[in-house]
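Supplementary Data S3. Sequence and structure tokens for construct A.
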Amino acid sequence: MDSDIRGRRARLNEAAPDKKKPPDAARSARSADIALARAPDEEKAKMWAEAEARYAPIVSLLDGSTYGYEAVPYRKDTGTKWPAEAFFAAAEADGALYACDRRFREAAIRGLPSGRGGTKLFLPVPAGIVNEAGIAPGSTLRRIEAAGLRPEHVVLQFSCRSFGEMETLRAAMRHYRLQGFRISLSGIEPERESLRRMTLLRPDYAQLEGGWIASDDGASSPPDERVSAGAALASRAVDESLLGAITALARKEQIVLIVNGISDEAQLAPLVAAGVGYGRGRWIGDARAAPGTIPADVAAQIRQEVSRRYRGAAGTLSDLTLSVETFRSETPVAEIARHFEYQREAHGFIIAEEGRPVGLLMKDKLHQLLSGQFGLPLYWNRPVGKIMDMQPMIADESTPIDQVSQMAMSREPDKLYDAVIVTREGRVAGIASIRALLEWVTHARMADAQWANPLTGLPGNEPIRRELMRRVAEGRPFAVLYADLDHFKWFNDRFGFHRGDDVIRYAGETIASYVREAAPDGSFVGHIGGDDFIVVLTSPDPAALARGLLERFAQGIGAYADPDAGPVVDREGRVVDSDGVCLSLALLACERTEGWTPERLSERAALLKKEAKRQSGHSLAWESV
């Protein structure tokens, strides 16, 4: 084999007899090796001819907008997906890794229109490419610039399935980070070793495989493999908790989380509930030969789910909006710098065309850019459109502040403190700082904590009143469920307040967890005080939900009973026919909201509660109004 390489190297040298050869023999050999690697033979060309680049959309799960595209290898002859790992492994086995990687990059970058510069391109790259003789630093950068893109718009995507690849992967990540690229790590699984690799490598993005997230696929399973509705709800709760933990870990490590494999609409709710920022999969959109838009119905469903999650949240972005000066993208950087000097309180300016935002320039990033060795001569007289952030965070002024805060914290680490552009009907309305957002959220959390019940942690009377007023003002049907413990005074007197507190906590946890499972969309659980609770929710059958809650409560309350407790007595000391603490529910199904107030709802519920308490055991009294 060595003799064959020497022979081919000699033929390459003989092909250019008129060129002056380098004096250093070692340099000459290296040059010949690089030329050989860059001149793929027929077998290498044949392998590349079997693959093409397609684009799978990545969507924001916070507002339904297109965040970027992942370039995916496909077989031309069959039109089937060719997983990037398998594609590069086959290329490496044939000695064609450099050739196939280079041509795939060129095709993927070339196929992304320059008008898509506001979105990101996730480009699969084999970690082993750093060991190839033909690799030349800066070649990818030149192709990106020729396509009208910038390095921050291209994310190089690596895969790491085992610790054996760690050193090679670290070398590849270091090689490309020095050139200004962001790095994504794919193939993350919800298990310890995979998450450990993620935290050790610290990529900018982590792509979590989401095929395990509960969906509606079970409906088509054989009868003996189907699970009950209760088990499905429990599975969803587990998924949400696990997703929330992984999201929190990624946020702590300043890693942007993307979930792959979203194949069903039912997977959307746990993803949004867990605060996952971005997603990709069959339900979002299939890979296409040219970058396409997110289907309108998919974007609408994402916005609807996010709206349900933040429904009732106090405060909108309009409360934090400040006026700001805007500039056109042709404005010289020098002029923007002078305006920052004149307006020392300004931390960012919006770049707009015809009143619509197209970019953002933060003061600290401009100063960082100009302070480099060649910053001033390179950028001082260039248009600001060449250096602005083409992917700023933009939100309508009606967006809840809690939602905006979640969106802001889901961004890349170097954008966490960039201002938010506020719009009104698509046009610039102003700007909101991250400091103002965080201060508002902090004060809101402190206010919520002030009104929270110290025993259960559930919202107290003031949040309950606000929730009822909001539901009435919305004008949509809703249900109010009042819960009260029967014979709790007897239990408290008989066993002491410590065990009484345990029962109160059990009641609050049971009500909150069951409602979260059975009616997760916009439900509210509050603790009025003592042994009284309230639930406000939207459900097609609130009576069935109430009966399910009674069953759930009855299953666990027995753990607090004592066979030697003696007879149960009422407040007057009379013996009653009961086994112990029971749950009474009063349900008001509000079909119309005109004329109702929180006070009137409470009065009506009190009458129903008396009716429920006249029944023995766990009871329900309800009416539709």
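Construct B, processed identically:
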Amino acid sequence: MTKRFYIFFLLFINYNFNAQILPIQNSILNYNQVLFQIKPVEKIKYYEFNVSEDYYFEDKLNFKNKTAFKHIDSTHSTIVENLRFGAAYKWKVNGYDSTDKLAYESSINTFSIMPCEYCDTKKYIFTQSYNDSTLYKNGLIWCDLYHCAIDRKGNVVWQFPIINKGIEKGRALRDLRMYPSGDLTFITDTNVFCINKDLEITWKTLHDKGKLIKHYANFHHCLRKLDNNHFMVLQARPYQIKNKKDTSLTISYDDDFLVEYDESGKEVWSWHTSEHFDNNLLKQIATTSNKRKISLHANSFSFDESGNNIYLNFRDLNRIIKINKRTKKIVSQYGQKLSEIDTLVFQTNLFNKQHDVRILPNNEITMFNNFSKDSNYVSSVLHLKLPQNKTDEFKIIWEFKLNFDSITNGKSDRLGSVELLENGNYLICTGENGRLLEVTKDKIPVWDAMLFEKITNPNKVLKFPQYKIAFSSSLYPFNFYVYKTTNEIKICNEGTETDTYVFFSKRKSNNKLFEITLKPNERFSYNFNKSLEKKLIIKSIKSNTSKEIKIN
């Protein structure tokens, strides 16, 4: 990372992100789906949000006719979409009472949205062949190599700006995704970051070749923020199996390993392939292939519902292993038999060169199945049920082959991801095939996108494959506000997802009072007892975030 990269982030760190006025005065945003919020005003029936580009705002005589957006909302916050990258804005809020008379008028606030080179149609092209909005949930698609979140029409909504040569254009960010908390995570070759949507770094761990911590180990492929706010990431380092009698028979490979870091960046758990995988199997692979360097290529991991077991996928071994997190022992293995001594694996030839394996409830898994084992291959998405004993067989629950139409040839040698969405559809990144898809259980493509990048030397239009993609309903999926009146606590779900909120009374210990589930834009009021309650804590179950209200 260059110094310029950190200076950019520091610009955002100085802002007070807990302020009640949003967007923050004079802020520069990297997204155009914007949450507007003011302090709540009592006895206001509804609020009118007026947003205009700066030069229109100065024309006070025609302001009402020139307002870019005017939103009416029953609460003191609202989300406005499709603002213009590269524009400066002013905004104000009017509040109206129960008689519809103007009872409140805010001051004029300003912000701007930085330009976006990803919106440049001279550099990037977006095309679609399927777009049935009745069969998918509207929202954002996070595209890692594109460094953007796009809407269903391919418009950029959020961008990670290219600000220095240390982040290679189009090839640096991998596994970019948004969590219910609003945090975003991504990987570069030697760095792991957690940021918020405003590009403020909230967590990072750095391995710099010039300043080694323990040893050089590159981060790769998969990063997850865990429910306990820790982070787990795949890493790799060179490793050798030495032959004491004949050094010419030394076998080398990349030792893929998992590391869990706590919130302070301290390593609290790790698992190394070199310590737990059967080295005799790897020796046999080397002997059979007559190679002294072999490839394992771990590329994904996921936890089961209990959180006790990790499923780690090895692409080049055509193998998925189940690890008990507490004991670190390999509990089960699934895939192709590697040699005659490989007798502990649940054997199958259903998948090959697989990517982004995810464990689901009931011992089911999904994967992007590159299946690039010969020239006639066709890649696919697989949803399987895993065997649990030697009499069980692998069961195909759902399979979607990529040669479903003639737009692409259905072949993808590498990359790719699949996410089973809450609506039952499958969100698919076809890797090198260059196509993004949403497909129903009935195998009907209901949304697709293809990104192309124009290059000038030589003058070509190239597919712009993504490493992985991810879905979120908006930039504010689990946003809620809480405020106190004379004798009430009011809560409103301002996010784009249904959420459950737990109310705790904070005395000597947190005492759970009740919980309430609210759909987007739903509100709830709670009459509190001042003599019994000093503070209230309201926790969002989905985002695992809390807000505290003082009663006295």
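The mean pLDDT is 87. The radius of gyration is 26 Å.
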